[in-house]
Specification:
The chain is built from 5 helices and 2 strands; from the N terminus they run ααββααα. It is mostly helical and 128 residues long. Strand 1 and strand 2 form a beta hairpin.
C-alpha cells in the first residue's frame, strides 16, 4: 500500500524529531508514541498555518449575538491555531526540544524527579 502525502510528511517530522532528540540526548524508544502524536500535531499546525497565511492572517471577525449586538471575536481558525501552537510547545518541552524542557530533563536525570512535599509533611519533618 502506498503512503499518502500526509503520512510521508508526518514520517519526515518523526524522523527529524528523533534526530533532534538524539542530538540532545533525550531520545528513548519508549517515547515513539509521544513522538508520533507530536508529529501529527506539528503537521496539522503546519497545514493550518499555511492556510492562515494564504487567507490573509484573518484573526478576528464580527459576530452578532442573539440580542442583536455585534461584537468582535477571534476566528475559529485562529483559535485552533493558537491551541495547536500551545500544545506543540508543551510537547516540545516534554520531549526536551526546548531549552527549558531540556534543562528540566537534565535536572531530573541528575537529581531524580522533584517530589512535592505537602505542608503537613513539611511541618512534621521540621519537628524531628
Amino acid at each position: 500500500m502506498a503512503l499518502t502525502l500526509e503520512e510521508k510528511a508526518i514520517r519526515k517530522i518523526v524522523k527529524k524529531t528523533v534526530e533532534k532528540m538524539k542530538a540532545v540526548g533525550t531520545y528513548r524508544p519508549q517515547f515513539d508514541s509521544a513522538i508520533r502524536t507530536y508529529s501529527e500535531m506539528k503537521y496539522e499546525m503546519d497545514i493550518l498555518t499555511q492556510h492562515f497565511y494564504a487567507t490573509g492572517f484573518k484573526r478576528t471577525e464580527e459576530y452578532t449575538n442573539k440580542a442583536g449586538a455585534t461584537n468582535i471575536r477571534k476566528t475559529a481558525e485562529y483559535l485552533a491555531l493558537e491551541k495547536l501552537r500551545d500544545d506543540v510547545d508543551k510537547r516540545e518541552n516534554n520531549l526536551g526540544l526546548t531549552p527549558a524542557g531540556l534543562k528540566k530533563i537534565n535536572d531530573e536525570m541528575k537529581n531524580g524527579p522533584k517530589k512535592k512535599v505537602s505542608a503537613l509533611a513539611a511541618a512534621l519533618s521540621s519537628l524531628e
